[in-house]
Amino acid sequence: MIKLGFELYLDAKDQGPIISSFKYPSSPNWDFETFYKKLADHDFLIYPGKVTNADCFRIGHIGHLYPDDMQKFAKVVGTICDEMKLFDKKSI
Q1: Tell me: the pLDDT tens digits for 10-36?
Q2: Dihedral sign, CA of 3, 34, 23, 68?
């Protein structure tokens, strides 16, 4: 996610093993609902942020997940970012 251009809400040293929160991109093209729906179209669901002082979203990474699952997720997120023109084009 960081390689794609997203910024962690918490410092890396404060991250836990269950969920990661990311700040909303500053791009004028950012729209959480569009991002959420596009991920859902690929069978991935994320969570809106529950932080009162920041716009962010959360990604859970526990349960029956494997490295291939997260690699597929990252690839789909990259494609969606390109479609929405959120960041300068980056590859992972």
Answers
A1: 998 998 889 999 999 999 999 999 999
A2: negative
The most distant pair of C-alpha atoms in the chain lies apart, rounded to whole Å, by 35
Interatomic CA distance for residues 27 and 25, integer angstroms: 5
Token digits of residue 38: 């596009």
| 74 Cβ contact list (under 8 Å, min separation 6) | 1, 4, 92
Span between the terminal Cα atoms of the chain, in Å: 9
**Two tokens at 10?**
């918490």
Tokens of 17: 């093993």
Specify whether the CB–CB gap between 3 and 73 falls below 8 A.
Answer: no
**Which residues does the chain have with pLDDT short of 70?**
89-92
d(CA 20, CA 15): 7
